[in-house]
Amino acid sequence: MTAPLFSGRGRRSVAALGAVSAGLLLLSACDKPTPLATVTVGTSSVSAEAACRDGKELTAEKVQECFTDLKDAKTVEYGRGDTLRLGVEPDVVEDGKKWQAVLDGQQITEPSSNTYDSFPGADLFLTGGQGEAPASKKLNIVQVSADGKPLAVWAFNIKLK
Asked: In terms of C-beta density within 10 A (0-12 exposed, 13-18 middle, 19 or more buried), how is residue 55 classed?
């Protein structure tokens, strides 16, 4: 008769250690979710992950593509004179990074290291007497590095009520 190599208790310990190791391996393979950006108008609020984020600086062509490709963009309704509130998670402004708002391709805020900004009574659909206001506009939040290079873009649609 031969003696078992491991006792019942030893086999269970080895099996448990293997299960824990496999679990840790699976968790390390998961991608960390991108930080959220949030747009709030009145009591309506939408949040989204970055539409474009590669972990490195984005090229000008990639940024333009992010500005125009809004198939997954969240929509919030906006009435003239409403307060527009923009927010980003603290990860967006770590290590000297900043963010700025871009409306229909035009920068509307200076780069900021704050996680929140509010624009009371802003009229996003003001035309300056040049025709009828569009029904919606594209709002992007752009994360920039300390030297001003784009790192990520969040995309939203602002729809006129």
From this structure: exposed
